[in-house]
What we know:
Layout: E1 11-13, E2 17-20, E3 26-32, H1 37-45, E4 50-53, E5 59-68, E6 79-80, H2 83-86, H3 88-108, H4 110-120, E7 136-141, E8 159-166, E9 168-169, E10 173-175, E11 180-182, E12 188-192, E13 200-201, E14 205-206, E15 212-219, H5 230-251
Helix pairs in contact: 3-4
This protein binds fe (ii) ion (FE2).
Amino acid sequence: MTxxxxxxxxxxxxxxxxxxxxQGVPVVGYFDLEGDAGKLLAAVQALQYGYxxxxxxxxxxxxxxxxxxxxxMRRDYCHTAVMSRxxxxxxxxxxxxxxxxxxxxxxxCPERFQKQMAQLDKVRPExxxxxxxxxxxxxxxxxxxxxxxxxxxxxxxWSCMIVLQRDMHGGHxxxxxYGMAFAFPRPALIMFDGMRLLHGVFPMVAKSKLxxxxxxxxxxxxxxxxxxxxxxxxxxxxxxxxxxxxxRSKKE
Length: 252
Ligand SMILES: [Fe+2]
Protein backbone atom coordinates (compact mmCIF):
# COMPACT_ATOMS: atom_id res chain seq x y z
CA MET A 1 0.00 0.00 0.00
CA THR A 2 1.33 3.42 -0.88
CA UNK A 3 0.79 5.97 1.86
CA UNK A 4 0.14 9.50 0.55
CA UNK A 5 3.06 11.83 1.22
CA UNK A 6 0.65 14.27 2.86
CA UNK A 7 0.34 11.90 5.83
CA UNK A 8 4.00 12.40 6.70
CA UNK A 9 4.30 16.07 7.54
CA UNK A 10 2.59 18.50 9.79
CA UNK A 11 4.78 21.54 9.12
CA UNK A 12 4.72 23.29 5.76
CA UNK A 13 7.78 25.51 5.39
CA UNK A 14 7.75 28.32 2.85
CA UNK A 15 10.22 30.76 4.40
CA UNK A 16 13.99 30.54 4.76
CA UNK A 17 15.08 28.46 7.75
CA UNK A 18 17.76 26.09 8.97
CA UNK A 19 16.56 22.82 10.51
CA UNK A 20 18.85 21.39 13.19
CA UNK A 21 18.98 17.91 14.68
CA UNK A 22 18.87 17.12 18.40
CA GLN A 23 22.58 18.04 18.72
CA GLY A 24 22.08 21.42 17.08
CA VAL A 25 23.77 20.34 13.84
CA PRO A 26 22.15 21.76 10.67
CA VAL A 27 20.41 19.03 8.66
CA VAL A 28 18.41 21.07 6.16
CA GLY A 29 19.09 24.59 4.90
CA TYR A 30 16.31 26.42 3.05
CA PHE A 31 16.91 29.81 1.43
CA ASP A 32 15.42 32.25 -1.02
CA LEU A 33 17.49 32.06 -4.17
CA GLU A 34 19.76 35.09 -4.57
CA GLY A 35 20.69 36.06 -8.13
CA ASP A 36 19.15 36.18 -11.58
CA ALA A 37 16.61 33.37 -11.46
CA GLY A 38 15.15 34.56 -14.79
CA LYS A 39 18.34 33.69 -16.68
CA LEU A 40 18.54 30.37 -14.91
CA LEU A 41 14.93 29.59 -15.82
CA ALA A 42 15.59 30.46 -19.47
CA ALA A 43 18.57 28.09 -19.42
CA VAL A 44 16.65 25.09 -18.06
CA GLN A 45 13.75 25.81 -20.42
CA ALA A 46 16.16 25.69 -23.38
CA LEU A 47 17.29 22.11 -22.64
CA GLN A 48 16.04 19.05 -24.48
CA TYR A 49 14.88 16.56 -21.90
CA GLY A 50 15.16 12.84 -22.26
CA TYR A 51 12.73 10.46 -20.67
CA UNK A 52 14.26 8.08 -18.18
CA UNK A 53 12.64 5.16 -16.46
CA UNK A 54 13.47 5.48 -12.79
CA UNK A 55 13.58 2.52 -10.44
CA UNK A 56 10.07 3.48 -9.29
CA UNK A 57 8.81 2.63 -12.77
CA UNK A 58 7.72 6.24 -13.35
CA UNK A 59 8.87 7.95 -16.50
CA UNK A 60 10.60 11.20 -15.70
CA UNK A 61 12.15 14.06 -17.62
CA UNK A 62 15.66 14.98 -16.66
CA UNK A 63 19.07 16.01 -17.94
CA UNK A 64 22.41 15.51 -16.25
CA UNK A 65 25.19 18.10 -16.10
CA UNK A 66 28.79 18.28 -15.01
CA UNK A 67 30.81 15.07 -14.93
CA UNK A 68 29.71 11.47 -15.08
CA UNK A 69 31.50 8.31 -13.91
CA UNK A 70 31.99 5.13 -15.93
CA UNK A 71 28.52 3.71 -16.53
CA UNK A 72 28.11 0.07 -17.51
CA MET A 73 29.59 -1.31 -20.73
CA ARG A 74 28.03 1.28 -22.99
CA ARG A 75 29.75 4.26 -21.40
CA ASP A 76 32.61 2.66 -19.59
CA TYR A 77 34.59 5.88 -19.32
CA CYS A 78 34.39 9.05 -17.27
CA HIS A 79 32.92 11.82 -19.35
CA THR A 80 31.41 15.27 -19.41
CA ALA A 81 27.61 15.37 -19.60
CA VAL A 82 26.11 15.56 -23.10
CA MET A 83 24.52 18.87 -22.12
CA SER A 84 27.95 20.52 -22.41
CA ARG A 85 27.89 19.84 -26.17
CA UNK A 86 24.17 20.25 -26.83
CA UNK A 87 23.74 23.43 -24.81
CA UNK A 88 27.19 24.79 -23.96
CA UNK A 89 26.04 28.23 -22.79
CA UNK A 90 23.32 26.80 -20.57
CA UNK A 91 25.71 24.18 -19.22
CA UNK A 92 28.24 26.89 -18.34
CA UNK A 93 25.56 28.86 -16.54
CA UNK A 94 24.48 25.81 -14.55
CA UNK A 95 28.10 25.21 -13.52
CA UNK A 96 28.35 28.86 -12.40
CA UNK A 97 25.32 28.30 -10.19
CA UNK A 98 27.03 25.30 -8.62
CA UNK A 99 29.76 27.68 -7.44
CA UNK A 100 27.17 30.16 -6.13
CA UNK A 101 25.22 27.64 -4.11
CA UNK A 102 28.48 26.26 -2.74
CA UNK A 103 29.13 29.63 -1.08
CA UNK A 104 25.79 29.43 0.73
CA UNK A 105 26.54 25.82 1.75
CA UNK A 106 29.96 26.77 3.12
CA UNK A 107 28.46 29.57 5.20
CA UNK A 108 25.56 27.43 6.48
CA CYS A 109 27.44 24.35 7.62
CA PRO A 110 31.21 25.01 7.53
CA GLU A 111 32.23 21.76 9.25
CA ARG A 112 30.30 19.52 6.90
CA PHE A 113 31.47 21.60 3.96
CA GLN A 114 35.12 21.15 4.95
CA LYS A 115 34.63 17.40 5.22
CA GLN A 116 32.99 17.34 1.82
CA MET A 117 35.88 19.27 0.24
CA ALA A 118 38.37 16.89 1.88
CA GLN A 119 36.58 13.92 0.26
CA LEU A 120 36.45 15.75 -3.07
CA ASP A 121 40.23 16.05 -2.99
CA LYS A 122 40.25 12.39 -4.07
CA VAL A 123 38.69 13.46 -7.39
CA ARG A 124 40.93 14.94 -10.10
CA PRO A 125 40.21 18.65 -10.68
CA GLU A 126 39.16 17.96 -14.30
CA UNK A 127 36.17 16.04 -12.96
CA UNK A 128 35.01 18.59 -10.41
CA UNK A 129 32.73 21.54 -11.06
CA UNK A 130 35.05 24.55 -10.57
CA UNK A 131 34.83 26.45 -7.29
CA UNK A 132 32.18 24.11 -6.00
CA UNK A 133 31.61 21.17 -3.66
CA UNK A 134 30.20 19.05 -6.50
CA UNK A 135 31.09 16.84 -9.43
CA UNK A 136 27.72 16.55 -11.11
CA UNK A 137 24.09 17.55 -11.24
CA UNK A 138 20.71 16.91 -12.75
CA UNK A 139 17.85 19.09 -13.94
CA UNK A 140 14.43 17.55 -13.32
CA UNK A 141 11.37 18.82 -15.15
CA UNK A 142 7.93 18.35 -13.55
CA UNK A 143 9.04 15.13 -11.85
CA UNK A 144 6.80 13.57 -9.22
CA UNK A 145 9.60 11.77 -7.44
CA UNK A 146 8.41 9.17 -4.96
CA UNK A 147 10.13 8.71 -1.64
CA UNK A 148 13.74 7.74 -2.12
CA UNK A 149 17.27 8.02 -0.80
CA UNK A 150 19.87 9.37 -3.19
CA UNK A 151 22.65 6.94 -4.05
CA UNK A 152 26.29 7.15 -5.05
CA UNK A 153 27.33 10.31 -3.22
CA UNK A 154 30.23 10.65 -0.81
CA UNK A 155 29.11 10.00 2.75
CA UNK A 156 27.90 12.71 5.12
CA UNK A 157 27.73 15.35 2.40
CA TRP A 158 24.98 17.66 1.27
CA SER A 159 23.42 18.01 -2.12
CA CYS A 160 22.11 21.45 -3.06
CA MET A 161 18.86 21.84 -4.94
CA ILE A 162 17.45 24.92 -6.64
CA VAL A 163 13.70 24.88 -7.30
CA LEU A 164 11.94 27.12 -9.81
CA GLN A 165 8.22 26.58 -9.69
CA ARG A 166 5.22 28.43 -11.05
CA ASP A 167 1.46 27.82 -11.08
CA MET A 168 1.72 24.34 -9.62
CA HIS A 169 -0.38 22.74 -6.91
CA GLY A 170 1.90 20.56 -4.79
CA GLY A 171 5.52 20.02 -5.73
CA HIS A 172 6.78 20.48 -2.17
CA UNK A 173 9.70 18.46 -0.95
CA UNK A 174 8.56 16.15 1.85
CA UNK A 175 11.04 15.09 4.54
CA UNK A 176 9.12 12.70 6.83
CA UNK A 177 11.91 12.31 9.40
CA TYR A 178 11.27 15.89 10.55
CA GLY A 179 7.57 15.96 9.68
CA MET A 180 8.24 18.76 7.24
CA ALA A 181 7.39 19.70 3.69
CA PHE A 182 9.12 22.57 1.92
CA ALA A 183 7.00 24.60 -0.49
CA PHE A 184 8.52 26.75 -3.23
CA PRO A 185 6.39 29.85 -3.85
CA ARG A 186 9.59 31.74 -4.79
CA PRO A 187 12.86 30.57 -6.39
CA ALA A 188 14.53 28.64 -3.58
CA LEU A 189 17.68 26.80 -2.62
CA ILE A 190 17.49 23.80 -0.32
CA MET A 191 20.35 21.62 0.89
CA PHE A 192 20.49 18.35 2.83
CA ASP A 193 22.06 14.87 2.91
CA GLY A 194 19.93 13.05 0.34
CA MET A 195 21.57 9.69 1.05
CA ARG A 196 20.63 9.79 4.71
CA LEU A 197 17.31 11.67 4.67
CA LEU A 198 14.35 10.03 2.98
CA HIS A 199 12.68 12.57 0.69
CA GLY A 200 10.05 12.78 -2.00
CA VAL A 201 8.11 15.28 -4.06
CA PHE A 202 4.45 15.88 -3.24
CA PRO A 203 2.42 15.15 -6.39
CA MET A 204 2.10 18.26 -8.51
CA VAL A 205 -0.78 19.35 -10.67
CA ALA A 206 -0.44 22.10 -13.26
CA LYS A 207 -2.77 25.06 -12.75
CA SER A 208 -2.27 26.50 -16.24
CA LYS A 209 -0.40 26.11 -19.49
CA LEU A 210 2.36 28.24 -17.97
CA UNK A 211 2.93 25.85 -15.06
CA UNK A 212 6.36 24.39 -14.45
CA UNK A 213 8.54 22.95 -11.73
CA UNK A 214 12.25 22.59 -12.36
CA UNK A 215 14.69 21.32 -9.79
CA UNK A 216 18.43 21.56 -10.32
CA UNK A 217 20.31 19.25 -7.98
CA UNK A 218 24.07 19.42 -7.47
CA UNK A 219 25.86 16.50 -5.86
CA UNK A 220 29.28 14.91 -5.32
CA UNK A 221 29.62 11.39 -6.73
CA UNK A 222 31.99 9.02 -4.99
CA UNK A 223 32.65 7.05 -8.19
CA UNK A 224 34.39 10.05 -9.70
CA UNK A 225 37.39 9.08 -7.54
CA UNK A 226 38.08 6.30 -10.06
CA UNK A 227 38.43 8.66 -13.02
CA UNK A 228 41.86 9.03 -14.58
CA UNK A 229 42.81 12.15 -16.51
CA UNK A 230 40.50 12.71 -19.52
CA UNK A 231 43.32 11.64 -21.86
CA UNK A 232 43.99 8.47 -19.88
CA UNK A 233 40.27 7.66 -19.78
CA UNK A 234 40.23 7.72 -23.60
CA UNK A 235 43.34 5.55 -23.79
CA UNK A 236 41.86 3.11 -21.28
CA UNK A 237 38.59 2.68 -23.16
CA UNK A 238 40.41 2.24 -26.47
CA UNK A 239 42.43 -0.62 -25.05
CA UNK A 240 39.37 -2.15 -23.40
CA UNK A 241 37.29 -1.94 -26.57
CA UNK A 242 40.01 -3.60 -28.60
CA UNK A 243 40.31 -6.39 -26.01
CA UNK A 244 36.54 -6.89 -25.96
CA UNK A 245 36.33 -7.00 -29.76
CA UNK A 246 39.15 -9.52 -29.89
CA UNK A 247 37.36 -11.71 -27.34
CA ARG A 248 34.13 -11.47 -29.30
CA SER A 249 35.80 -12.37 -32.63
CA LYS A 250 37.45 -15.41 -30.99
CA LYS A 251 34.03 -16.64 -29.82
CA GLU A 252 32.54 -16.32 -33.31
FE1 LIG B 1 16.73 12.86 -4.28
